[in-house]
Structure formats: structure tokens, C-alpha cells
Design goal:
With 873 residues, the chain is of the alpha+beta class. Helix content is 29%, strand content 26%. The strands form eleven sheets. It has a nine-stranded antiparallel beta sheet with strand order 3-8-9-10-11-20-17-14-13. Strands 1, 2, 34, 35, 39, 41 and 43 form a seven-stranded mixed beta sheet that branches. The chain has a seven-stranded antiparallel beta sheet with strand order 4-5-6-7-12-19-18. The longest helix has 22 residues, at 448-469.
């Protein structure tokens, strides 16, 4: 019996007019059964090496850290440390993800509703300047800040004649270590933060007996008390009642940071340190534990806070942290170091080892990480991109685990009382960027803290929607904190409406809930979160009005955080901004699909369908660029770090080559104008943009810019890039750039938002050979791929939930049981959001630089089925 293989060829020529006219061609290839059998055997053998676990991936240095951005991060999702690796006085700067200033408060502005109604009236009269000025009256208080906890200081008695120094962070195992030789022998310190046992553990050993001697104590920038009880070193810290954002500058009255006393408001936390040693002796003196003449020592730390949920005062209604720590240490003391480490490795590697990326390189990568960062500008070492990709996955696992808080602007690492932008959840892109890698990089569990934040935020956001707008549903604005702050910030009028009054945070965050469903197919999850998605949609519906052309558009909004020129003024407010319209379209379409999938809210679904049918189309100006505002205003900063109006390209699923090629090209033109440089996180977003524009070489160009050394070595640039410890430099540090880069590298290798699972959609020409395993596509598909000579050679796709699997590639493929892909993909999971035809200004011209031919195949899968793929070439 003969088997048949089909290919669908789509040939995109250089000009867009030709692209639109070009029809899909179909070629049917019949192969004999002997070749089929051979192909399957080759495929199985080739793919057997996929998923064999990650290689050693390390950041390492030949000198200790002198600055915070040179130290190395560890964390278990809640309890984190920055390790300096010093030989004399070692510093472990400690954080707890729950330790924030402030408490739940009433940040809503009762005068906002009247101002909002007047703003709507002024916008209809095109009195933009007056409307923007009035937005100040809608603002509430600023958010609170994520605070540093304390430092553990380890003073070593022997720090002379240091030789053979080495410090590293092994992200394969989430273990950091320091080793060096003194006149007495070799000292090694190894440390990890365990999620299963909730402790941070350091082991100090040597190659000679009796040479380990050190003292330990705590210090803190917080209100604190240090004590020793039963040979346990303990510190209790109290966070401020108020911590003003650092960008507000100094306060003459000294009230930028306000501490209550121990009976007042403010989060409290404790850290306990237990030391076990072999040989030598332990003594205590002046709030220090001293180890003298030991052969080996194990330091075990636990931390807990008084946080009692988002809606209760941590100072007045908080839980007692010492109770939780007692329980943690009681469990931990039943295990020795090796057992604690084994449990840590098993837990961590269950997540980290799911994805393995191997970018082949002949470049010597045995040099230290700081030198590799500097040399990337010359050698474009693929192994450094591989390390950057996996580092982002490591940081996400380390800063966001079930039961903890969502990763904030700095993950869980901060050493400043007034950190940059309060180290809060900046929801006009940054907190969302933190979770872009979570699904595609097969770390879906890391989303749970974000989902918990969204759920609680929707509760507070409902009050804000009613109070500030008189609207249904719920809303969140530009800044969010651990307390679920949902109102516009700005200290009741001091903030710039361009960012403070941006109200799309709740809608954008709710898109993450629907994305989780698309990746997992978990209909129970969708059902449980439907009311949150609906509430965000209802609020956005209330912000829409019918314009003079008969379309629905937002009555007013902002394009974070850019301005335009209008009547000799610079303004930010506008009806129908590109970003607002893209988010509104995305959340309404998501909610509409949810009503159909869950068979609920039929009348509401019809209302959504009606809005979608009359939704304002995107606009392209005469220069061929996607418009940022409803009118074709000239931006004040053509190279602005935000490129918010490209949301529909990424992370939205509305603009792509297949459905709307004019918009696809219009996005390119925007990016050409914006430029390839920028702040660190902005380059992280641009990596994703160019990956979705299917241009691997331009994507890699942005990656190269991200490797710009900042504030170390012999190279220093005053723009975004990378610190010595590979933290993203805004500057200063923002972790979203790391997460954005990881997500973007994944988008270069796999996309699944345009009606198919697209294999190697944006592969750079210099990545000649490599492999990746474990990436996840929408529809619950796990994808492994191998390529050589810049061409896909083999792949396997595992279906976890079953359903149609449509595969797209630039090369004709051999797939047993596949048939030609015709018409729309019946799967709902890779379905893009339809936008309709854009409105194109007179004079706009386009030219496509994509002349690739694409092949598409369909195969119906069952849960657990593995689809093996070979390239015909």
C-alpha cells in the first residue's frame, strides 16, 4: 500500500503587489513504501538525541564582584541572594519576594469620575491639550516599593596570599560557587536556594584540615533587630510604611522613606542562620557566630515575612514569620547537605532541563564571561546567545515559583531602599515581558504567581473602574505593586498622564490568561478565569465610542511613553492610539472566543461580535508606517524606546505576513525609523519584533546590540546593554530585558501564532548548525528540531492534547501520515486575530524583502503521539 506526502508551497516575491497576486501552488509527491520506511528509521535515530539534557552553562569570573551588578543571583522564587564571592569579607545580599513597603490602601480618587466625563467631552471637541491637563485630576497615590531585606556578612580569618581565584554560577544546576587558594590550602564555597526545602544552603570546605575560620553577622538598611538564640543567628527587619519612587528625587523633610515603630504599619520579616560544622568549634559574641579551625561548615538560612495576603495589613494583621521559619528549619535539619542539594537539583532540573539549545560554534568559549561579553562585538559567538537564552530561563525559575509572588521589575533581587521605578510591576510592558518566555520555553508553572496577582488585581480593579470611571469590569494602570494597586499613580496630580493615566494594564495582563489556554488547551483553566477576562473586556468596551467614520475606537488614551506635536504643543493624549486599539482588539477577540468555547454568555458574545465587526482598522500613513495615533501626528522622538503601537505584531497575534502583508511591512518601516539601539528592555522587545518579521539576521543584529558592555571592563557605553553579570542594563538594571531576549530567541526558532507551527521561522544565516528541544507551541505541542547548513534536517513534534497539527517550514518535508494543508487551520490554538484591511494613506508604498517559499502540512494527532519529520533536501 502506498503512502502519500504532500507539500504546500507559498512563494513570496520581492514586491508586495506581486506577493498579493501570487497564488498558493500545490505539489503532490508520491513515494514508495521502502523510502518511507527508511525515512522513518532515519528520523527516529536522528531524533533520539533530542532531549538528552542541557550541557554545562556557566557564568564565571577570575575576580570577586565589586558592584552589585557584578554579583551572581540565586533564588527559589521567594528567597534570593546576590553573591559577591569575596575572599575577605563575603557579602550575600538577601531578598524575600514578599518584602515590600506599605500596606493595602485606598489609592482611588473620588474626583476622578467627574474629570473622566469631562475628558471624554473635550476629546470629542479635539481639545486635546485641555483633556490631557484634566487627566491629572484622575490620579491617585504612587505604588509602594520592593525592599532589600538584609546582608549576610561572612568575615574570613585568612584572606592573604590569594591565588587561583574562581567564582561561577552554574545555571544548569542553579548552584553558585567560589574557590581560591590561601597560604594554608584551598577553600571552596558552594551555595544554592532550594524550592522544595525553602532554604538557602552554603557549604564551605577545604583540602586541608582545620583551616576554615570565619565569623557571620547580619546588617540591614531596614529597621532591624539582631539576636542569637540557641546558636541560631537571627535578624528581624521592618519595611517602611512609605517608600516614594526614586524618580521623585530627594525630600527636604526627609520623608521620602517613612518607618513606623515595631508596633506600627510595615511588613516584618526574619532570616535565621544555622551553622553545622565538622572539626573546630563554634562560639558566639556580639551578634556574631564564629567558627574556628573547622574542616567543613554548612550554613543553612530560612526567611519568612508577615505578609498575610494582598488585602490585609502586614504590620497590623500580619502572620508571625518566626513560626514559618521554625517549621522550615525543622524539616531541613532532617537532611544533610547532600540530601538538600539532591532535592534541589531534582526539582530545578525538572524545569530547566526541559529545553536544550545547542548553537554550534568553533569560537573559543573557555574565557571568562566578562571577556566573552566584550568579545561578542567581534566574534558573534552563538554560544553566548545560547547562554543568554538559558540565563533568562534560569532567572525566571529563580524568581517566580508557585506559592511566591510574581517576578517584579528586578525579579527578586534588589539592594536599594528606593530602587529604580520602585522595582514594582510596571504594566505598560515590563511585567508582561517577564512572562513572555514562560510558555514557549516550557516553564508554564512559573506563570502561577502572575495569575494570582491578576486575580487579586481584578478585585481591586473593579473598585477603581467604578470609582474613577463609573464603568463595568475592572482596570489596572501603569504601575502595580504587591498590594494590587489598580489606580492611576501620580500623587493626585503630580504624574505625567502620558504614563500615569494609561489604563490598558488589566486588559493586557488578561491576555496572558488566554495565552495560557492556547498553549495548554486547559479548558478548566479558561472557565475558572473567564470572569477575569470578561471583566477586563467590559472595562475596555466602556472606553470605546463610535467615531465619525462609524468605527469603534477608544475615546482617549496614550501611547506609552511617547509624545507628538500638535498646534505648537507636545501632547500624549489621543483617541484610538495604535497600542490601545491593538490591546482592545486582542482582549475582545479572546473573550469572544472564550464565550464560544465555554458555551456561555451568548448575548454578551453577540455584543462582542458586533464590536469586532465594526472595529477601527489599523492605519498606515503616507510614509508606509503603522500609525501610532489616530491622526498622523509627528512624534517628538522618532527613536523612542517604546514601540508600543506594534503590540499587534508582538505579543499580539494580529499582524503577520500571511493575513495582512501591508501591515507586516508597515511594522518594518516603523522599526527602521526607531532604530536598532535603545534601552536594554527595548532591545529585548525589538528582538521579538524582528523575529516575527521573519528576519533572522536583523534579529541577531539587535541581540548583538544587547551585548553592549555597560559599566565594566575597558568598555563603557551610556546606553542599554549588559552588565558584567549578564543582567540587562536599561540602565539601570531591569530584568525584563533578560526575559524579553530569551523569549525573542525562542521566537527565532519557533512560532505558532499565525495558523501553523512554524519551524525555524527566523534563523540567522550565521547559525549554520544547531539543535533545540523542548520548545512549546500553541496547542500543547512540544517541538524538537535539528538543522545543518542553515536548513532544517529533522524534527519531532509531540502532541500532548491531540488535534490538528499544521506545520510550516521553508523546506519541503517528509512526514508520515501528513496531507496537504488547505484552507484555514481547524485548530483554534494557532488562530490569529483577524483585523480586516488597513486604511492606507495616499502615497504609501511597500516592498517586501521576504522572498522565501513556505511549505505547509496537516496531520491529525492524538494525545501522546510523536510526529517525526525529515527535510527532503
Amino acid at each position: 500500500m502506498n503512502n502519500y506526502y504532500y507539500q504546500k508551497s507559498v512563494n513570496y516575491k520581492i514586491t508586495l503587489s506581486e506577493l498579493l497576486k501570487k497564488q498558493k501552488t500545490i505539489n503532490r509527491h508520491k513515494m514508495n513504501s521502502k523510502r518511507i520506511l527508511l525515512s522513518i528509521m532515519i528520523s527516529l535515530v536522528t531524533l533520539a538525541s533530542f532531549g538528552q539534557g542541557t550541557k554545562n552553562l556557566k557564568l564565571w569570573y577570575s575576580f570577586p564582584a565589586n558592584k552589585w551588578v557584578e554579583a551572581l543571583p540565586i533564588g527559589n522564587g521567594t528567597f534570593g541572594a546576590m553573591i559577591f564571592g569575596k575572599t575577605g569579607q563575603e557579602i550575600l545580599q538577601l531578598n524575600n519576594g514578599e518584602f515590600w513597603s506599605g500596606a493595602p490602601s485606598n489609592w482611588n480618587n473620588p474626583e476622578a469620575k467627574a474629570a473622566y466625563e469631562q475628558v471624554n467631552k473635550l476629546m470629542k471637541e479635539q481639545k486635546f491639550a485641555e483633556a490631557e491637563k484634566l487627566c491629572h485630576k484622575m490620579q491617585g497615590s504612587y505604588t509602594e516599593a520592593f525592599e532589600p531585606l538584609c546582608d549576610l556578612i561572612i568575615t574570613n580569618s585568612d584572606s592573604t596570599n590569594i591565588r587561583n581565584y574562581h567564582r561561577e554560577l552554574d545555571i544548569t544546576n542553579a548552584v553558585s560557587s567560589v574557590s581560591y587558594t590561601t597560604s594554608k590550602g584551598k577553600i571552596t564555597r558552594e551555595i544554592f536556594s532550594s524550592y522544595p526545602d525553602k532554604v538557602m544552603v552554603m557549604k564551605i570546605n577545604s583540602n586541608a584540615k582545620g583551616i576554615i575560620s570565619f565569623s557571620t553577622t547580619f546588617t540591614s538598611k531596614m529597621l532591624n533587630k539582631i539576636r542569637i538564640e540557641d546558636n541560631i543567628l537571627k535578624i528581624r527587619c521592618k519595611a517602611p510604611r512609605v517608600s516614594q519612587p526614586s524618580y521623585r528625587g530627594e525630600y527636604k523633610d526627609g520623608k521620602a522613606v517613612i518607618f513606623d515603630d515595631w508596633n506600627g504599619e510595615g511588613m516584618e520579616a526574619e532570616v535565621w542562620l544555622v551553622i553545622n560544622h565538622k572539626g573546630g568549634k563554634l562560639s558566639v559574641a556580639k551578634n556574631q557566630i564564629i567558627i574556628t579551625g573547622a574542616d567543613e561548615a554548612t550554613l543553612t538560612m530560612a526567611s519568612a515575612t508577615s505578609f498575610n495576603g494582598r488585602f490585609k495589613s502586614p504590620g497590623l494583621q500580619g502572620v508571625e514569620p518566626s513560626v514559618q521559619i521554625t517549621s522550615i528549619l525543622k524539616k531541613a535539619e532532617t537532611k544533610n547537605y547532600d540530601q538538600l542539594k539532591a532535592a534541589h537539583l531534582k526539582d530545578y532540573k525538572n524545569l530547566f532541563d526541559r529545553v536544550n539549545l545547542d548553537l554550534k560554534s568553533n569560537i573559543d568559549n573557555s574565557i571568562s564571561t566578562d571577556k566573552r561579553i566584550i568579545s561578542y562585538a567581534q566574534n558573534n559567538d552563538p554560544k553566548m546567545v545560547e547562554l543568554l537564552f538559558q540565563y533568562g530561563r534560569y532567572l525566571l525559575i529563580s524568581s517566580s515559583r508557585p506559592g511566591g509572588q510574581a517576578a517584579n521589575l528586578q525579579g527578586i533581587w534588589n539592594h536599594e531602599v528606593r530602587p529604580p521605578w520602585s522595582s514594582n510591576y510596571t504594566s505598560n510592558i515590563n511585567v508582561q515581558m517577564n512572562y513572555w518566555p514562560s510558555e514557549v520555553c516550557n516553564l508554564t508553572e512559573t506563570n502561577l504567581p502572575l495569575f494570582a496577582l491578576i486575580k487579586d488585581l481584578s478585585v481591586n480593579g473593579k473598585v477603581t473602574a467604578t470609582t474613577n470611571y463609573g464603568s463595568k469590569g475592572w482596570v489596572a494602570h501603569h504601575n502595580v505593586d504587591i498590594w494590587g494597586h489598580s489606580a492611576p499613580v501620580g500623587d493626585f496630580g503630580e504624574g505625567d498622564p502620558m504614563w500615569a493615566n494609561w489604563y490598558m494594564g488589566g486588559a493586557w495582563l488578561s491576555c496572558h490568561l488566554y495565552e495560557h489556554f492556547l498553549f495548554t488547551g486547559d479548558k478548566t483553566f479558561l472557565k475558572n478565569n473567564y470572569e477575569i477576562i470578561k471583566g477586563a473586556t467590559q472595562f475596555i468596551m466602556g472606553m470605546l465610542s463610535v467615531n465619525k467614520d462609524g468605527y469603534y475606537e477608544t475615546t482617549y488614551g496614550f501611547s506609552p511613553e511617547n509624545r507628538y506635536k500638535f498646534e505648537n504643543q507636545t501632547l500624549g493624549i489621543s483617541p484610538g492610539t495604535g497600542m490601545d486599539m491593538a490591546i482592545a482588539h486582542q482582549i475582545i477577540a479572546n473573550c469572544y472566543q472564550a464565550t464560544k468555547l465555554l458555551a456561555v454568555d451568548d448575548e454578551f458574545g453577540k455584543e462582542l461580535e458586533n464590536i469586532l465587526s465594526k472595529f477601527q482598522p489599523f492605519k498606515i500613513n503616507s510614509a508606509g508606517r503603522l500609525q501610532e495615533w489616530a491622526q498622523d501626528f509627528e512624534e517628538t522622538d522618532p527613536h523612542h524606546r517604546h514601540t508600543s503601537h506594534l503590540f499587534a505584531l508582538h505579543p499580539g497575534s494580529q499582524i503577520n505576513l500571511w493575513d495582512n502583508p501591508e501591515l507586516f511591512e508597515a511594522c518594518k518601516n516603523v522599526l527602521y525609523r526607531r532604530g536598532d539601539e535603545g534601552t536594554g528592555w527595548a532591545m529585548g522587545w525589538k528582538i521579538n519584533f524582528w523575529a516575527r518579521l521573519l528576519d533572522g539576521d536583523h534579529t541577531l543584529k539587535i541581540v548583538k546590540n544587547l551585548f553592549t558592555p555597560v559599566d565594566f571592563g575597558e568598555v563603557r557605553y551610556d546606553r542599554g546593554g549588559m552588565y558584567l553579570n549578564m543582567f540587562d542594563a536599561h540602565p539601570p538594571f531591569q530584568i525584563d530585558g533578560n526575559f524579553g531576549a530569551t523569549a525573542g530567541i525562542a521566537e527565532m526558532l519557533l512560532q505558532s501564532h499565525t495558523g501553523a507551527i512554524h519551524l525555524l521561522p527566523s534563523l540567522p544565516s550565521i547559525w549554520k548548525e544547531g539543535s533545540v528541544s523542548g520548545l512549546k507551541a500553541r496547542g500543547g505541542f512540544i517541538v524538537n528540531m535539528r538543522w545543518s547548513g542553515g536548513t532544517l534536517t529533522s524534527a519531532s513534534i509531540t502532541s500532548t492534547i491531540g488535534g490538528n497539527c499544521r506545520i510550516r517550514a521553508e523546506w519541503p518535508l517528509v512526514i508520515k501520515g501528513a496531507k496537504i494543508a488547505t484552507g484555514e487551520n481547524p485548530s483554534i490554538f494557532q488562530k490569529s486575530v483577524s483585523t480586516g484591511k488597513p486604511i492606507i494613506a495616499s502615497g504609501a508604498t511597500f516592498s517586501s524583502t521576504n522572498n522565501k517559499k513556505y511549505y505547509e502540512y496537516d496531520i491529525m494527532t492524538r494525545p501522546g503521539q510523536v510526529v517525526n519529520i525529515l527535510s527532503e533536501k
